[in-house]
Design a protein that fits this description.
The protein is an all-alpha fold. The chain is 57% helix and 2% strand. The protein is globular, with a radius of gyration of 19 Å.
Length: 308
């Protein structure tokens, strides 16, 4: 049993099982990223940041990630760029593994290794071009689209933490957008919001761009059944997807024709809340945040202690 007063005490066999599942999910095609190396090298975001504390919560990442993708896919150029050029439809788990690993590396990976990974992503995206079903040309490295993708990710993770773990102050919300700046610029999203006010302005400016599509509902169906969570959490997966939908602004849900059947019941809402709060105190020794703390010589429970 882990002996940290700030975390949920787990019997060793339970911890080891959950730890193995987490490590396995972040393994992309047999390649495991070592977050402990190089020793002492900082990440793109500092260890005392809001980002480090929020991204350690795996339940919040699942919910917030779905919210972000829904907003991304509401933009037709992003939607068709993802759907026409990725393996999400045919190999959703592997796609989620790659996306999850990229998010962890961006936040917790050593700066030099994160920069190298992002450069590889940008290079790969340079070949992603096409025409949407509405007849618009798109390019994955279009700065306008990159700004939108970066912004929606920040919004999704921030909103789920605020709704299900603990309320975030205005200063904390601004910090999250600001902390994403270095990675956003490396991805080519130089105009991504750096504050809540800038996000609000971008969302308002995108109103006429967002559009419904059957692809959005195909994505939701995949997320309800993909084997992305530990087996013990499988019954909760549909509720987590509903929670992600509920985080969307009401006008966005209306624009995307998402009906009331995606609302959480009272029992589902309670289950999601309990799961998110529990995940915030779940320390797994092989998880990227703990490994990154070890790289910097910080204690395993550094991110689980209440900030002063």
């Amino acid at each position: 049993m882990l002996g940290f007063p700030h975390v949920i005490p787990l019997p060793a066999p339970v911890h080891d099982r959950l730890d193995a599942v987490t490590a396995g999910f972040l393994t992309d095609a047999g390649v495991t990223f070592d977050f402990t190396m190089p020793q002492g090298e900082p990440a793109l975001v500092s260890a005392d940041s809001m980002s480090w504390r929020i991204f350690k919560n795996q339940v919040a990442l699942f919910i917030g990630g779905v919210t972000a993708v829904l907003l991304e896919m509401a933009e037709p150029k992003v939607r068709d760029g993802v759907w026409q050029h990725s393996s999400f439809r045919t190999q959703p788990l592997k796609r989620l593994q790659r996306t999850g690993l990229a998010a962890m590396v961006t936040v917790y990976g050593a700066r030099s290794r994160a920069e190298a990974m992002i450069a590889g992503v940008v290079k790969a995206h340079d070949h992603v071009t096409g025409v949407t079903s509405e007849g618009e040309d798109y390019h994955a490295n279009d700065p306008v689209l990159l700004d939108w993708v970066q912004a929606t990710a920040g919004f999704g993770f921030m909103e789920v933490y605020h709704a299900y773990v603990r309320p975030l102050s205005q200063a904390e919300r601004d910090s999250l957008f600001f902390e994403a700046g270095p990675a956003a610029r490396l991805y080519g999203a130089a105009g991504a919001p750096t504050s809540q006010l800038e996000w609000d302005a971008l969302l308002d400016a995108m109103k006429d761009r967002l559009a419904p599509s059957p692809i959005i509902f195909e994505f939701l169906d995949i997320m309800k059944r993909v084997d992305a969570l530990p087996q013990i959490a499988n019954p909760l997966q549909v509720a987590l997807v509903k929670a992600a939908v509920e985080l969307l602004p009401d006008w966005v849900k209306t624009r995307l024709s998402i009906g009331p059947h995606y609302r959480l019941s009272r029992r589902e809402r309670l289950a999601v809340t309990l799961a998110a709060k529990a995940a915030d105190r779940l320390l797994l020794k092989s998880s990227p945040p703990v490994q990154a703390c070890r790289r910097l010589g910080l204690p395993d429970d550094y991110l689980y202690r209440k900030p002063h």
